[in-house]
Amino acid sequence: MTTDASTTGARRPGEQALTALGLGAPALDPADTSSHTFPGGGRWRTEVPSCEGPEALAVILKEASRLDVPIHRISQGSGVWMLSDAEITEMVDATGERDIELCLFTGPRGTWDIGGSTRTDSRGGGLRARGHDAVAGCVEDAVRATELGVKCLLVADEGVLWTLHRARQAGLIPADTTLKVSALIGPVNPAAYAVYERLGADSVNVPSDLTLDHLTEIRRVSGAPMDMYIEAPDDLGGYIRMYEVAELIRRGAPLYLKFGLSKAPGIYPYGHHMRDVTLSTARERVRRGRLALDLLARHGADGDMAPLGSRLPGELNRFDIQS
Fold first, then answer.
1. Which of 212, 187, 216 is nearest to 201 (CA)?
2. CA distances from 179 to 166, 174, 313 (A)
């Protein structure tokens, strides 16, 4: 029988041996435990990122079946514009058969366009959409993707987030479309996190170097689902927080556990010239997920996973949309 990681029943890493040596950790503070859950129950979901096309998706689904890794969401990083209609439709159908949410990245981003400031040491505007045309490209991607059946869109710009939130409120894209904030612009304090929620975010990817106390601070002001790389890609720091998974859930729920991969080359924007590394890293991300889930089980903290197929965020706080 498993035990919810939000209670003191879950075993902490090395607890029994360290206690026997007089080095036991202090008791967990109940005030640190997040009071939030996903709608319909559950405190954590899973996500496999960097799935760049139908072939990588097939590898992920096959490996997930082989290793018995439950998946709630699969996300892509290169962008809607890097996929053909046929490829998007194939991915929509394959994830739909498994009741997995498919999330595709929207439109142009500053680090790929002609803006020179993004190539300076300061990185300028970073991933954000530069100018009206870049925003328009993101909206074009959103409309095209949702018309093909995609239900989740990944954004890396506050203006694009607000625009797409307004678009779904106006019926320009389906009302049940979920909007996910990229780790590339993830907030690092509770005030910023609450702003993203109010701008329309349904889940927010925070940087993987936030401390446990930071997660508690965020949860005291917002219940919007949080995404966090348990293992971050090198360009996001390469952090590996495997042994903290149970405590990340306790502090950060409702939480998407993202199974990233360090020590792997960047693959965005993806093309067939990156095929071999993309397929091999896709397979390894699923294995990393199995390792994290096994660790949760060993600690008696693998209970309270949200039901497979669940994807909506529940009631969230939003800024008023003026007509």
1. 187
2. 11, 11, 10
Which tokens sit at 179?
A: 């909007």
Of 151, 148, 182, nearest to 309 by C-alpha is 151
Residues 179-228 pLDDT 10s: 999 998 999 999 999 999 999 999 999 999 999 999 999 999 999 999 99
Given a contact cutoff of 8 angstroms between Cβ atoms, the answer to whether 91 and 102 are in contact is: yes
Q: Which of 263, 211, 271, 201 is nearest to 235 (CA)?
A: 263
Cβ atoms of 108 and 138 closer than 8 Å: yes
